[in-house]
Design brief:
mainly beta; M1 Pyruvate Kinase, Domain 3; seven-stranded mixed β-barrel; 4 helices; 11% helix
Length: 253
């Protein structure tokens, strides 16, 4: 049986992952996942590509009523209601995301940690800050196969790839075989798997420290030659629903 072995979300894009036991998936994804993002003084998007250590900061977000907390690696924490200020538009790899700058203590705390006059923005709608599609899935067996390639360093760690749902019980890259079909996850959620996930340089960074430590892109391309380093698949939400750890996953005809 194939089941959900881990759930990964990040309320602020590029910050550290949370691992909830249960999530509610709407038509645009998980409300608490990537609702916020960071910009610099020039209103350009800031991610782990620019500030490696952002992954060391953990964010927790409650949507109703809206409240956000940031916990820094030194143990300090900043928490406040989500109060919104000026409108901004930010380019996300060829598309525009609109939002509002979050006021309060967050911007100073983030700038003190990451530098560069960082500002926190809440996107205007859930799902806007996803890279391409609302949900991504990947199997533990795929991660294990990558770890067995010549040149791989250390044990497999799915956090490099930040999949929404990590699956156990299947074969390596079985998720690719499901492309074009629907999958049922738990009793409620149904996804339509529509595209392979092209990976970027963030996967070459240690998921705990943020420092570059392994050329995952070269490793993937060495045994999966393609125009991009594809790893995992993306899905659209056909039917919303809750998903918990241990939920069964099956391909639908």
């Amino acid at each position: 049986m194939i089941t959900v072995s881990a759930i990964h979300i990040a309320p602020v894009k590029s910050l550290g992952l949370l691992h909830p036991n249960t999530v509610r998936v709407g038509t645009e994804g998980i409300v608490e996942d990537r609702r916020f993002y960071l910009i610099d003084a020039a209103e350009r998007l800031v991610t782990q590509r620019e500030v490696f250590s952002l992954v060391q900061v953990k964010a927790e977000y409650a949507a109703e009523p809206e409240r956000l907390s940031l916990r820094f690696p030194d143990g300090s924490e900043v928490s406040d209601s989500v109060n919104l200020g000026e409108n901004v538009s930010t380019v996300f790899w060829g598309r525009t995301v609109t939002g509002q700058v979050v006021t309060g203590p967050f911007n100073q705390a983030l700038s003190n940690f990451g530098g560069g006059g960082l500002r926190l923005v809440r996107s205007d709608a859930p799902g806007q800050c996803q890279d391409e599609y609302p949900i991504s899935i990947m199997s533990e067996a795929s991660v294990q196969m990558l770890a067995e390639q010549p040149g791989a360093q250390g044990p497999p760690d799915s956090r490099r790839f930040r999949p929404t749902f990590l699956l156990s019980g299947g074969s390596a890259h079985q998720e690719d075989e499901w492309l074009g079909s629907s999958v049922q996850i738990g009793e409620e959620l149904r996804l339509r798997l529509v595209a392979r996930d092209p990976r970027c340089a963030i996967t070459t960074h240690d998921p705990t420290t943020g420092s570059p430590d392994m050329d995952t892109l070269r490793l993937i391309l060495a045994y999966r030659p393609a125009d991009r380093a594809y790893f995992g698949v993306y899905g659209l939400v056909e039917r919303p629903g809750a998903v918990s750890l241990g939920a069964a996953v099956r391909q639908l005809e």
